[in-house]
Amino acid sequence: MTGTPSPGPSRTLDRIRVGSAPDSWGVWFPEDPEQVPWQRFLDEVSQAGYQWIELGPYGYLPTDPARLADETAARNLRVSAGTVFTSLHQGPAVWDETWEQVSRVATLTRAMGAAHLVVIPSFWRDDKTAALIEPSELTTEQWRHLAEGTERLAREVRERYGLEIAVHPHADTHIDTEEHVTRFLDATDPALVNLCLDTGHYAYCGGDSVKLIETYGERIGYLHLKQVDPRVLAEVVRDGTPFGPAVRQGVMCEPPGGLPALEPVLTAAQGLGVDLFAIVEQDMYPCPPDQPLPIAERTRRFLRGCGA
């Protein structure tokens, strides 16, 4: 799909710190023969013009802080966040298992000088077969577990590691559509729980990123930048395709060829008057090893053209 490049920024987006992530190199798992080696990711993300990265799936990049610090510094890279996956709607029974994972990722995230932990809810259907793992709608009790568990997680992560969580609305999870995102925000403490607004996932689920920023701006703590191809998305919605196969169909596309338009999103985020990371995450697993770098370079040029 093609798009018209931005005519140029109306102002400099000096509160937005742009980066990229292993996801933009087709990395979804700690180890997978279809993924590029971590050294190549670090080399190419730096070559593409980025200075900020996320850790990606724990174990993909070196987990020894000293080694990772050396590897990133050698390429003039810094870490903005780590990522964890949770099933907090299942209640207190999953807390110990959740915290075991969170503590590992938070330890490395803090050691790398980052201040954010991106929290992704668990999927309600199998990412490959589309089989239901559990109902797509939570019960009232599960919503309460989700809200209380997320607040506890935010509190513990802040107190023990000095990190702020950013909950990531995600396709095929219970925090996805505008209705679910709004319900989650209204159920959680603004002093503890913010969002990682992923522009692609929110559009995938029918949401308007600019509207969300304008309505709940004080809850936007982090951004992921991506776009969806509306033609592929229409097929995905028609066929009920799960997220993983939808990515293989190319539902997430290279900017500026999809939706939402990123310049209005960035301008709205700039208008919040706070410093925000905006990390490019173009889902494309799996992908040929030579595909990510040219896309990353073009995307970085496009974002500079937006003022970021």
Tell me what you see in this structure.
There is one protein chain. With 308 residues, this protein is of the alpha/beta class. The protein has one domain: Divalent-metal-dependent TIM barrel enzymes (TIM Barrel, Alpha-Beta Barrel), CATH 3.20.20. The protein is built from 11 helices and 10 strands. Strands 1-10-7-6-5-4-3-2 form an 8-stranded parallel β-sheet. The protein has a two-stranded antiparallel sheet with strand order 8-9. Residues 1-10 have low confidence and may be disordered.
CATH topology: TIM Barrel
Q: What structural class do the secondary elements suggest?
A: alpha/beta
**What's the number of helices?**
11
* The CATH C-level class name: Alpha Beta
Query: What sort of overall outline do the alpha carbons produce when their principal axes are compared?
Result: globular
Q: What gap, in angstroms, lies between the N and C termini?
A: 23 Å
**Order of strands in the sheet with most strands:** 1-10-7-6-5-4-3-2
Rg from C-alpha positions? 18 Å
As a percent range, the share of helical residues equals 25-40%
Q: Main sheet?
A: 8 strands, parallel
So, the CATH homologous superfamily?
Answer: Divalent-metal-dependent TIM barrel enzymes
Order of helices and strands: EHEHEHEHEHEHHEEHHEHEH
- Enumerate the spans where pLDDT stays under 50 for 5 or more consecutive residues: 1-10
The averaged pLDDT comes out at 95
Strand content: 15-25%
The CATH architecture comes to: Alpha-Beta Barrel
Total tally of structural domains: 1
User: How many strands appear in the DSSP assignment?
Assistant: 10
GO molecular function, one term: isomerase activity
Organism: Streptomyces axinellae
InterPro entries: IolE/XylAMocC-like, Xyl_isomerase-like_sf, Xyl_isomerase-like_TIM-brl
Keywords: Isomerase
